[in-house]
């Protein structure tokens, strides 16, 4: 059963949301849309926990993986806007230990643009140590860049959160999750957490992860996806290493991981909070960042094939920019997607702010289909 409301003219989004369930793409999910600061879609349905049959409720929380990165970037950009951080100053000005291994002149800007050359570690950090924050920050400070910083870009899939978060921590005196809560989530009344309080953990849905696939790759797999899959299968590739800098690998169903701060991947929120966050970025009520900061942050800084994902990746200052083939593409749109299909984005030109979350983590290329269906159903 689909629950929630749509404003007149947005009924097609409800139909598309229901169709995603009928097609078997969803277990539990929610979608929210704001238009010029006003909620026009707020829908949820399905099962939050297949093991217990707990239904998805209005306040069900969802891990959104890399969709978190936009919230993390916003924290650093807020410090930049306040004059507390200079994007062109060396990271080491704020984090002295970072100067090791020839990184003494590496600017803060390149942390946001995935140009720092620190997408992986020579020696992975143990999971429990990564959850305690400081060992990972120390490992990144000591790490020699894997390519000459500034010359290319490679998706810092996991390390992005600690790199940006440590600068925020050194400058503000607060953890990234604490800064986000006090400076962004609470002023906008967002049910959005980077490190969910234990008292709210009962509302978090259970991720349904795809089974490992050891079969030969399908013949009809798009070539870029084939290359990415082959890179993942090679333990020596930068692609594999970027996702293996923590051992054993993260499992975001783990309560310890949900309450820890992993600012690249463990944001936990409702679709409503995700859409409201993007509405706040483009000027709904309590504005998170100034129009000029948003303009600079959503101007493309790097683009083209990415060293880690092997796919086209276009990014501003921490915010992802859609490629022309993306359903949410427009010249002014910005946002970030997450593993399995979650997506948050805003388009200042149309006034749309969109949030979609789900617990059925699908493998690429099918991951984008449910959100694409919802976006295509938006009027206009």
Automatic annotation (TrEMBL):
It comes from the Bacteria. Gene3D superfamilies: DD-peptidase/beta-lactamase superfamily. Pfam families: Beta-lactamase. Signal peptide: none annotated. InterPro entries: Beta-lactam-related, Beta-lactam/transpept-like, Beta-lactamase/esterase. Residues 18-373 form the Beta-lactamase-related domain. SUPFAM superfamilies: beta-lactamase/transpeptidase-like. PANTHER family: BETA-LACTAMASE-RELATED, BETA-LACTAMASE-RELATED DOMAIN-CONTAINING PROTEIN. This is CubicO group peptidase, beta-lactamase class C family. The lineage of its organism: Bacteria, Bacillati, Actinomycetota, Actinomycetes, Pseudonocardiales.
């Amino acid at each position: 059963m689909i629950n929630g409301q749509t404003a007149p003219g947005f009924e097609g989004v409800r139909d598309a949301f229901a169709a995603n369930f009928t097609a078997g793409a969803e277990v539990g999910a929610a979608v929210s849309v704001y238009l010029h600061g006003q909620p026009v879609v707020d829908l949820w349905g399905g099962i939050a926990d297949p093991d217990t049959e707990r239904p998805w409720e209005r306040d069900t929380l969802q891990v959104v993986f890399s969709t978190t990165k936009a919230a993390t970037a916003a924290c650093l950009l807020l410090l930049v806007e306040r004059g507390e951080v200079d994007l062109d100053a060396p990271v080491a000005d704020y984090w002295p230990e970072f100067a090791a291994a020839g990184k003494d002149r590496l600017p803060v800007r390149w942390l946001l643009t995935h140009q720092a050359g620190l997408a992986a570690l020579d020696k992975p950090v143990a999971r429990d140590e990564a959850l305690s924050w400081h060992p990972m920050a120390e490992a990144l400070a000591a790490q020699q860049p894997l390519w000459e910083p500034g010359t290319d870009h490679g998706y810092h899939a996991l390390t992005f959160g600690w790199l940006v978060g440590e600068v925020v921590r050194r400058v503000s005196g607060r953890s990234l999750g604490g800064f986000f809560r006090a400076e962004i989530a609470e002023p906008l009344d967002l049910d959005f957490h980077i490190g969910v309080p234990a008292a709210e953990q009962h509302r978090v849905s259970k991720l349904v992860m795809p089974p490992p696939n050891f079969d030969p790759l399908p013949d009809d797999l798009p070539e870029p996806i084939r290359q990415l899959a082959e890179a993942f299968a090679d333990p020596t590739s930068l692609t594999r290493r970027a996702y293996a800098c923590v051992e054993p690998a993260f499992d975001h169903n783990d309560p310890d991981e949900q309450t820890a701060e992993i600012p690249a991947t463990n944001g936990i929120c409702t679709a409503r909070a995700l859409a409201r966050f993007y509405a706040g970025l483009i000027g709904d009520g309590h504005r998170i960042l100034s129009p000029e900061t948003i303009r600079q942050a959503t101007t493309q800084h790097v683009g083209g094939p990415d060293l880690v994902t092997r796919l086209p990746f276009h990014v501003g200052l921490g915010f992802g920019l859609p490629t022309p083939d993306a359903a949410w593409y427009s010249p002014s749109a910005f946002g970030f997607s997450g593993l399995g299909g979650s997506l948050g984005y805003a388009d200042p030109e149309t006034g749309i702010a969109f949030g979609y979350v789900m617990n059925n983590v699908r493998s690429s290329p099918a991951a984008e289909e449910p959100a694409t269906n919802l976006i295509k159903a938006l009027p206009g």
